Amino acid sequence: MPTLTVERIAKSYDGNPAVREISFSVGTGQVLALCGENGAGKSTLMKMLSGAVVPDSGRVFMDGVPVRIDCPADAMALGICTVYQELSLLPHLSVAENMLLGRMPQKRIPWVIDWSAANRIAGRVLAEFGFPEIDPTMLVSDLSVSKQQIVEIAKALVNEPAILILDEPTAVLSAHETDRLFATVRRLAETGTTVLYISHRLEEIFQIADAFVVLKDGASVLQGELDTVDEARLIEAMVGRPLAAIFPPRDRIPGRVVLEVEQLTVAGTFENIGFQLRAGEIVGLFGLVGAGRTDVAKVIFGARPAERGRVRIDGAEVTIHTPREAVRRGLAMITEDRKGDGLALDDSVENNTMFACFDRISSYGVIDSAERSRLMEEQVRSLSIRSPGVDRPVRQLSGGNQQKVVLAKWLLADGIKVFIFDEPTRGVDIATKVEIYRIIAELASHGAAVLLISSEMPEVIGISDRILVMREGRLAAELLPDAFSMESLFRYAAGLAQPD
């Protein structure tokens, strides 16, 4: 008998269906992958199962018995624990306090917390999870983003859930941390926990899941056992059309040298980094977490100072102290943390899109409203930005649409010669990835030089003209297309091959 059965569950907002009578079942100890584009209905479905949203119709069964999930407390009582993509930790509290919030152990004296027991419980759960190095007494604010994600998941594991819902759990994790997460998921499944796993990374789905449900426009369009489909079939179901190729075909004809970096160094972070970018060229920059890729990009873009080295643009040596100077020199950077560095989340979609192009839409300090509206409509149409309105806060958009707003901002900027993309497809669905690859290819075809930083080997191989591999702050290799392979990238990045 299935642990969880969802029968014709539906939800609409203001008459617009978000979930359309979805039905599926998942057995005890199974891992079910929920697949689909941003806006397909995955988040609404997850929120209904976790009690954050009440369905308009339909029924939910656990072990064959109908249940009501009208609030998060109902879900918790049923053993349903959800780890959302957005962190919900309290940064001013310790790891143990966050993990045991609302159920801190007490001493025999009423209302007196047993801190030793709390730290011991948290430490045990973290150790079983595979992260004994995380100190339960540390403040969450002192942890890296990836370690905060680990604590967020461990917080759910404390409850020993019957059903665990994971929403994009690996978005900020390293490959090693992801391996430990998957080991825990497998262990939980073996002991009877049912897992609902949401991820845009299809390779993860095939690695960890037993079954799948594909959602599109709020409806289930394909479901079954994972060993009955391949990646191409899943992609076709998600985007509604076959994809002959994820990566667009390109003419690889690089032009003049636009950007040149020579002996760039920040002690303890990276050393003697040197490379060239040519007009019309896409150069991938690959490396394992901590290799220094983002730090190099930030120095080039003026977001942090270099201790040594030179940067030349169109042959002229430049010193760039701030991102503002970088933009004036013709550089743009799409950062890996769109919410922290790329967007003003509480500002409107329109204002975020226009941040880098006020010179184009204003004269003597007066904004041309008609031109601003025209450019905004152009970007919404060309990038297929889905928003309830351009005047709405950008935080209300899905992750993929937020990323499109970041892209629109830089596409509207004047005089950009070099685009630095740092993990541009992190946390977005496959259809948005294809759109981003098309944009990158078009930028190169129009003469821009592109530096693509990515942790996804298929991505960096699929779109790059050359690939630079970093390891421990140094360039380990420069690969041309005939040497592209995931094995060669990993060998250089992990130090298993000799530097060129």
Structural description of this entry:
Strand 11 (257-266) and strand 12 form a beta hairpin. It contains 18 helices and 22 strands. Helices cover 34% and strands 25% of the residues. The chain has two domains: 4-239, Rossmann fold; 257-493, 3-Layer(aba) Sandwich (Rossmann fold), CATH 3.40.50. The strands form five sheets. The chain has a six-stranded mixed sheet with strand order 6-7-8-3-9-10, with helices on both faces.
Q: How many discrete domains?
A: 2
CATH topology of the largest domain: Rossmann fold
Q: Calculate the mean pLDDT score and round it.
A: 87
Q: What is the topology, as strand order, of the major beta sheet?
A: 6-7-8-3-9-10
Distance between the termini: 57 Å
Main sheet characteristics: 6 strands, mixed
Strand runs, count: 22
Helices and strands: which structural class?
Answer: alpha/beta
Q: What are the segments in which pLDDT stays under 50 over at least 5 consecutive residues?
A: none
Tally of helical runs: 18
- What is the beta-strand fraction? 25-35%
**CATH H-level superfamily title of the largest domain:** P-loop containing nucleotide triphosphate hydrolases
Shape: globular
Oligomeric state as shown? single chain
How large is the radius of gyration? 24 Å
* Helix content range: 25-40%
What is the name of the CATH class of the largest domain? Alpha Beta
CATH architecture of the largest domain: 3-Layer(aba) Sandwich
